[in-house]
Amino acid sequence: AAVPSTRPGPSEEKRYLGTLKSFSQEAVAGYGFIQCDELFLLYNRDTFVDRAVLEGSTWRVGVLVEFSVSLNLKGQPQARDVVWEPVAMLPSSALAAQPGPRAFSAEVMKHLKELIGWLNEKAKASALFRAADFRDKDIDYMFFVLDRLGDDVAMDAVAGLSDTQRQVVLQRIAEMLNERYADERCKSLTQWLKALDCATLNDTGR
Q1: Cα–Cα distances in angstroms (integers) from residue 1 to residues 4, 11, 120, 140, 141, in the given order
Q2: Closest Cα to residue 61, out of 100, 22, 34?
Q3: What is the pTM of this model?
Q4: Do 179 and 92 touch, CB atoms closer than 8 A?
Q5: How many angstroms separate the CA atoms of 53 and 144, rounded?
Q6: Could you read off the pLDDT tens digit of each residue along the chain, which spans 206 residues?
Protein backbone atom coordinates (compact mmCIF):
# COMPACT_ATOMS: atom_id res chain seq x y z
CA ALA A 1 0.00 0.00 0.00
CA ALA A 2 1.11 3.54 -0.69
CA VAL A 3 2.47 5.67 2.11
CA PRO A 4 -0.22 8.15 3.22
CA SER A 5 0.30 11.66 1.89
CA THR A 6 0.35 14.77 4.06
CA ARG A 7 -1.62 17.09 1.78
CA PRO A 8 -4.95 15.98 0.30
CA GLY A 9 -5.60 16.54 -3.38
CA PRO A 10 -8.63 16.32 -5.65
CA SER A 11 -10.61 13.10 -5.26
CA GLU A 12 -13.52 11.52 -7.11
CA GLU A 13 -14.43 9.49 -4.04
CA LYS A 14 -16.40 10.59 -1.01
CA ARG A 15 -14.12 11.70 1.80
CA TYR A 16 -14.64 11.53 5.56
CA LEU A 17 -13.07 13.05 8.67
CA GLY A 18 -12.43 11.06 11.83
CA THR A 19 -9.90 10.44 14.58
CA LEU A 20 -7.63 7.46 15.12
CA LYS A 21 -9.31 5.82 18.11
CA SER A 22 -6.97 2.90 18.73
CA PHE A 23 -4.17 0.84 17.23
CA SER A 24 -2.89 -2.62 18.06
CA GLN A 25 0.77 -3.17 17.13
CA GLU A 26 0.68 -6.92 16.75
CA ALA A 27 3.81 -8.44 15.25
CA VAL A 28 2.00 -10.10 12.34
CA ALA A 29 -1.13 -8.10 11.68
CA GLY A 30 -1.37 -4.72 13.34
CA TYR A 31 -4.58 -2.78 12.84
CA GLY A 32 -6.54 0.14 14.21
CA PHE A 33 -9.91 1.86 14.22
CA ILE A 34 -11.02 5.32 13.18
CA GLN A 35 -13.89 6.99 14.97
CA CYS A 36 -16.19 8.73 12.50
CA ASP A 37 -19.71 9.63 13.64
CA GLU A 38 -21.11 9.70 10.11
CA LEU A 39 -19.93 6.18 9.29
CA PHE A 40 -20.85 4.83 12.72
CA LEU A 41 -24.45 5.84 12.06
CA LEU A 42 -24.36 3.86 8.80
CA TYR A 43 -22.55 0.72 9.95
CA ASN A 44 -22.83 0.76 13.77
CA ARG A 45 -19.07 0.27 14.13
CA ASP A 46 -15.80 2.15 13.91
CA THR A 47 -13.85 2.10 10.66
CA PHE A 48 -11.04 -0.45 10.37
CA VAL A 49 -7.59 0.76 9.33
CA ASP A 50 -4.94 -1.73 8.26
CA ARG A 51 -1.35 -1.69 9.48
CA ALA A 52 -0.11 -1.13 5.92
CA VAL A 53 -1.90 2.23 5.84
CA LEU A 54 0.03 3.39 8.89
CA GLU A 55 3.48 2.36 7.68
CA GLY A 56 5.68 5.35 6.91
CA SER A 57 3.20 7.80 8.46
CA THR A 58 3.38 9.97 11.57
CA TRP A 59 0.21 8.53 13.05
CA ARG A 60 -0.73 8.91 16.71
CA VAL A 61 -3.85 7.89 18.60
CA GLY A 62 -6.21 10.87 18.68
CA VAL A 63 -4.92 12.38 15.45
CA LEU A 64 -7.44 13.76 12.94
CA VAL A 65 -7.53 11.82 9.68
CA GLU A 66 -9.22 12.14 6.30
CA PHE A 67 -10.01 9.03 4.30
CA SER A 68 -12.16 7.22 1.78
CA VAL A 69 -14.04 4.01 2.58
CA SER A 70 -14.45 0.56 1.06
CA LEU A 71 -16.40 -2.38 2.49
CA ASN A 72 -14.93 -5.80 3.27
CA LEU A 73 -16.70 -9.09 2.49
CA LYS A 74 -18.77 -8.68 5.64
CA GLY A 75 -19.95 -5.22 4.61
CA GLN A 76 -17.83 -3.51 7.25
CA PRO A 77 -16.08 -0.16 6.57
CA GLN A 78 -12.35 -0.02 5.93
CA ALA A 79 -10.29 3.15 5.54
CA ARG A 80 -8.42 3.83 2.30
CA ASP A 81 -6.30 6.73 1.02
CA VAL A 82 -5.74 7.97 4.55
CA VAL A 83 -4.29 11.45 5.12
CA TRP A 84 -2.93 12.25 8.57
CA GLU A 85 -3.33 15.76 10.02
CA PRO A 86 -5.29 16.86 6.90
CA VAL A 87 -6.12 20.38 8.10
CA ALA A 88 -4.06 23.20 6.61
CA MET A 89 -2.79 25.67 9.20
CA LEU A 90 -2.27 29.40 8.73
CA PRO A 91 1.39 30.53 8.50
CA SER A 92 0.94 32.54 11.71
CA SER A 93 -0.59 29.64 13.66
CA ALA A 94 1.12 28.65 16.90
CA LEU A 95 -0.90 25.43 16.94
CA ALA A 96 1.02 24.03 13.98
CA ALA A 97 4.23 23.76 16.01
CA GLN A 98 2.66 22.12 19.05
CA PRO A 99 3.60 18.46 19.67
CA GLY A 100 1.00 15.72 19.83
CA PRO A 101 -2.34 15.42 18.03
CA ARG A 102 -4.02 18.76 17.41
CA ALA A 103 -7.28 19.27 19.24
CA PHE A 104 -9.97 21.12 17.32
CA SER A 105 -13.05 22.78 18.77
CA ALA A 106 -16.57 21.60 17.99
CA GLU A 107 -17.09 24.73 15.87
CA VAL A 108 -13.96 24.07 13.79
CA MET A 109 -14.98 20.45 13.23
CA LYS A 110 -18.45 21.58 12.19
CA HIS A 111 -16.94 23.94 9.61
CA LEU A 112 -14.50 21.31 8.29
CA LYS A 113 -17.26 18.73 7.91
CA GLU A 114 -19.44 21.27 6.13
CA LEU A 115 -16.63 22.00 3.66
CA ILE A 116 -15.98 18.29 3.09
CA GLY A 117 -19.70 17.90 2.46
CA TRP A 118 -19.75 20.59 -0.24
CA LEU A 119 -16.65 19.07 -1.84
CA ASN A 120 -18.18 15.59 -1.82
CA GLU A 121 -21.22 17.02 -3.60
CA LYS A 122 -18.92 18.69 -6.18
CA ALA A 123 -20.35 22.04 -5.13
CA LYS A 124 -17.08 23.87 -5.83
CA ALA A 125 -18.42 27.41 -5.59
CA SER A 126 -20.22 26.77 -2.30
CA ALA A 127 -17.12 25.20 -0.74
CA LEU A 128 -14.97 28.08 -1.96
CA PHE A 129 -17.28 30.78 -0.64
CA ARG A 130 -17.82 29.13 2.74
CA ALA A 131 -14.07 28.64 3.15
CA ALA A 132 -13.52 32.36 2.52
CA ASP A 133 -16.29 33.24 4.94
CA PHE A 134 -15.02 31.05 7.82
CA ARG A 135 -12.31 32.67 9.94
CA ASP A 136 -10.01 31.24 12.60
CA LYS A 137 -6.66 32.25 14.08
CA ASP A 138 -5.17 28.82 13.31
CA ILE A 139 -7.20 26.99 10.65
CA ASP A 140 -6.58 27.73 6.99
CA TYR A 141 -10.05 26.98 5.65
CA MET A 142 -9.19 28.37 2.22
CA PHE A 143 -6.35 25.96 1.55
CA PHE A 144 -8.38 23.16 3.10
CA VAL A 145 -10.66 23.68 0.08
CA LEU A 146 -8.14 24.83 -2.55
CA ASP A 147 -5.93 21.76 -2.04
CA ARG A 148 -8.92 19.49 -2.64
CA LEU A 149 -10.19 21.40 -5.66
CA GLY A 150 -6.87 21.75 -7.45
CA ASP A 151 -5.75 24.88 -9.29
CA ASP A 152 -6.80 23.53 -12.69
CA VAL A 153 -10.52 23.94 -11.82
CA ALA A 154 -10.17 27.56 -10.68
CA MET A 155 -12.10 29.04 -13.62
CA ASP A 156 -14.89 26.50 -13.29
CA ALA A 157 -15.17 26.98 -9.52
CA VAL A 158 -15.31 30.78 -9.53
CA ALA A 159 -17.82 30.81 -12.38
CA GLY A 160 -20.44 29.49 -9.96
CA LEU A 161 -20.00 32.37 -7.51
CA SER A 162 -22.44 35.27 -7.32
CA ASP A 163 -21.00 38.79 -7.51
CA THR A 164 -21.22 39.17 -3.72
CA GLN A 165 -19.62 35.77 -3.09
CA ARG A 166 -16.86 36.55 -5.56
CA GLN A 167 -15.99 39.72 -3.67
CA VAL A 168 -15.75 37.79 -0.40
CA VAL A 169 -13.40 35.22 -1.96
CA LEU A 170 -11.39 37.93 -3.72
CA GLN A 171 -10.92 39.85 -0.49
CA ARG A 172 -9.85 36.74 1.40
CA ILE A 173 -7.27 35.71 -1.20
CA ALA A 174 -5.90 39.27 -1.33
CA GLU A 175 -5.48 39.13 2.46
CA MET A 176 -3.74 35.76 2.22
CA LEU A 177 -1.22 37.09 -0.30
CA ASN A 178 0.01 39.45 2.42
CA GLU A 179 0.74 36.54 4.77
CA ARG A 180 3.93 34.47 4.94
CA TYR A 181 3.03 31.59 2.67
CA ALA A 182 5.59 29.46 0.86
CA ASP A 183 6.21 30.27 -2.81
CA GLU A 184 4.14 27.27 -3.92
CA ARG A 185 1.16 28.53 -1.93
CA CYS A 186 1.54 32.08 -3.28
CA LYS A 187 1.60 30.74 -6.83
CA SER A 188 -1.64 28.88 -6.19
CA LEU A 189 -3.29 31.95 -4.69
CA THR A 190 -2.20 34.07 -7.64
CA GLN A 191 -3.78 31.60 -10.05
CA TRP A 192 -7.08 31.75 -8.18
CA LEU A 193 -6.88 35.54 -8.09
CA LYS A 194 -6.47 35.63 -11.86
CA ALA A 195 -9.46 33.33 -12.28
CA LEU A 196 -11.56 35.68 -10.14
CA ASP A 197 -10.42 38.69 -12.16
CA CYS A 198 -11.28 36.93 -15.42
CA ALA A 199 -14.74 36.02 -14.14
CA THR A 200 -15.34 39.64 -13.12
CA LEU A 201 -14.20 40.93 -16.51
CA ASN A 202 -16.41 38.43 -18.32
CA ASP A 203 -19.45 39.60 -16.33
CA THR A 204 -18.59 43.24 -16.98
CA GLY A 205 -18.32 42.61 -20.71
CA ARG A 206 -21.75 41.01 -21.00
Answers
A1: 9, 18, 24, 29, 29
A2: 22
A3: 0.88
A4: yes
A5: 22
A6: 333 445 677 788 899 999 999 887 664 567 889 999 999 999 999 999 987 776 656 678 888 999 999 999 999 999 999 888 899 999 988 877 777 778 899 999 999 999 999 999 999 999 999 999 999 999 999 999 999 999 999 999 999 999 999 999 999 999 999 999 999 999 999 999 999 988 877 665 55
